[in-house]
């Protein structure tokens, strides 16, 4: 063995010094994630904003109510490092124009770069019997469930594809986007429609390295849930009496965990998984456990008004 | 044994004569079915109108194009008896107001009585990539698939329930309302949404003795299909190259047969049945064969762009 000649040692040390300086200057640092969250001022969207700010992302929350947005960013900023950009935009996301305008506003802070993570958490539910609602209620239901997410997805995907940004589009549907019952004729069509959009978009986005996910959430506690219950028909309430909605933080963790596992249709309840394997169709499943769920069996509704567990009237196959 | 006294015989013969006269006068005859068919001037809707006129129903067809409507009623009238009422109404069914107005017009001929059979066959498909469409294309897609049926269903159900008319509401969705792929982001959301509406409405209508059906049709030959193919992206065409669309009459017979069997979700292709048992969720199935279909297995899409049979990349369970 012999020691390295002094000039080789000097060159090595110089290179090492340059590398350390480059790391210190952030030249090798991955740029921060640009996260765009609709419905980000309350419930699931806000819980997600808190978590992703803690994880070091740039976060823009979008919602309608300016006061709640201001309150949200005031709560988010203390959690952020000085390099993280935290902002909010007030917009009516049921309109295509203002959905696109909101996104255009958001990207200004990112030097025009498209978001790389889009979480579509906006939406609301107002259960009512079909025979008791007017056409306006039907239209507002679809606007507030489907368009509120579809227009933003469209604006974001177009910008991401144009800039070759690889990222994620995450829709939020519902257990009631797999199957449904009396009381949800103005809600479930939009939640099913989101699944139709996600199923088709997932396929198209394989061409562009953008991953699409859809979270089939069970009930989430909060002001949205309280408003939903205010006018819920008695029969709908009866069908759901076994349900146990979760806190937004718990639901948010299930959603992030599903995304991290690479699941396409993400669930947060065993019964949703049972329904998923019998209702998702031939889109990608979530792994070997799906086989176990399929053995537990497809659940079939009988002709009664308790169409879901815990009181099914017939188990088929 | 002894013969009946003459006055008993006379009374019996008189009763018999009254009964024969009553039958001849139609007093015991079931009133003719009042049938309302949207999209009734072409394709599936028109084939259905022809068949139901032949079966002796009152039939009103609704569509936008007045010339095609006039041509349709001219073809229907020679098939009808003098007691059958055949008429047409031109209306834009993507608007709630004109959907309701069209129904109000239709019932005038029936003395204000609600239809007892409503067939929702209107709709169109214009495949396009999500990244290539504008928001107007998205909106027109949903209007022309979802609202074109949902508003009429709403107006009809309200009138039927108010008059305690027992009858049927039949939606027309699609194979692409179970699962979908690149090219259908403006079409499948509406077809999924119709399934969401039908699933919730089926449950609510158990309270009112109205049966709800949804026909998950495979491709139907005709002008609608030709228009769909005109701008179809090459990838979408490739995915569908194994498909064999049927003539409207063949499809119509499958739909009527499904209704007669009491199926809730009606199919007209083996592969649709395979998808149905893995995509319908816990709504009522179509009988013992469903078990066989479930054994053939859930079909899972791999991460490629041939997401449906005949070339699936993975079979799960």
Automatic annotation (TrEMBL), chains A, B:
InterPro entries: KDSR-like, NAD(P)-bd_dom_sf, SDR_fam. One of its GO terms (cellular component) is endoplasmic reticulum membrane. It catalyses: sphinganine + NADP(+) = 3-oxosphinganine + NADPH + H(+). GO terms for biological process: 3-keto-sphinganine metabolic process; sphingolipid biosynthetic process. Pathway: Lipid metabolism; sphingolipid metabolism; Sphingolipid metabolism. The chain crosses the membrane at residues 6-28, 169-187. One of its GO terms (molecular function) is 3-dehydrosphinganine reductase activity. Keywords: Endoplasmic reticulum, Lipid metabolism, Membrane, NADP, Oxidoreductase, Sphingolipid metabolism, Transmembrane, Transmembrane helix. It is found in: Endoplasmic reticulum. It is an enzyme of class 1 (oxidoreductase). Catalyzes the reduction of 3'-oxosphinganine (3-ketodihydrosphingosine/KDS) to sphinganine (dihydrosphingosine/DHS), the second step of de novo sphingolipid biosynthesis. This is 3-dehydrosphinganine reductase. The gene is TSC10_2.
């Amino acid at each position: 063995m012999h020691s390295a000649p002094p000039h080789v040692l000097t060159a090595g040390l110089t290179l090492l010094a340059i590398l350390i300086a480059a790391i210190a200057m952030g030249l090798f640092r991955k740029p921060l994630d640009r996260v765009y969250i609709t419905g980000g001022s309350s419930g699931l969207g806000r819980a997600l904003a808190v978590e992703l700010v803690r994880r070091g992302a740039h976060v823009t929350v979008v919602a309608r109510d300016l006061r709640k947005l201001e309150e949200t960013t005031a709560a988010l900023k203390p959690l952020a490092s000085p390099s993280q950009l935290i902002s909010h935009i007030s917009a009516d996301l049921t309109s295509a124009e203002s959905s696109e305008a909101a996104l255009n506003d958001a990207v200004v802070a990112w030097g025009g770069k498209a978001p790389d993570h889009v979480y579509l958490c906006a939406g609301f539910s107002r259960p009512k019997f079909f025979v008791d609602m007017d056409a306006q209620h039907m239209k507002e239901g679809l606007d507030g469930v489907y368009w509120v997410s579809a227009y933003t997805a469209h604006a974001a995907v177009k910008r991401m594809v144009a800039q070759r940004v690889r990222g994620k589009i995450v829709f939020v549907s519902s257990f009631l986007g797999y199957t449904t019952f009396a009381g949800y004729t103005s809600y479930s069509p939009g939640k099913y429609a989101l699944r139709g959009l996600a199923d088709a978009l997932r396929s198209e986005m394989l061409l562009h390295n953008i991953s699409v996910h859809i979270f089939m959430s069970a009930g989430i506690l909060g002001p949205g849930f309280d408003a939903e219950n205010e006018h819920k028909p008695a029969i709908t309430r009866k069908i759901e009496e076994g349900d146990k909605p979760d806190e937004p933080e718990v639901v948010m963790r299930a959603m992030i965990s599903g995304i991290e596992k690479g699941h396409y249709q993400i669930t947060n309840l065993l019964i949703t998984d049972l329904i998923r394997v019998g209702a998702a169709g031939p889109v990608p499943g979530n792994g070997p456990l799906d086989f176990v769920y399929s053995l537990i069996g497809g659940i079939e509704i009988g002709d009664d008004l308790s169409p879901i567990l815990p009181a099914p009237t017939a188990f088929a196959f």
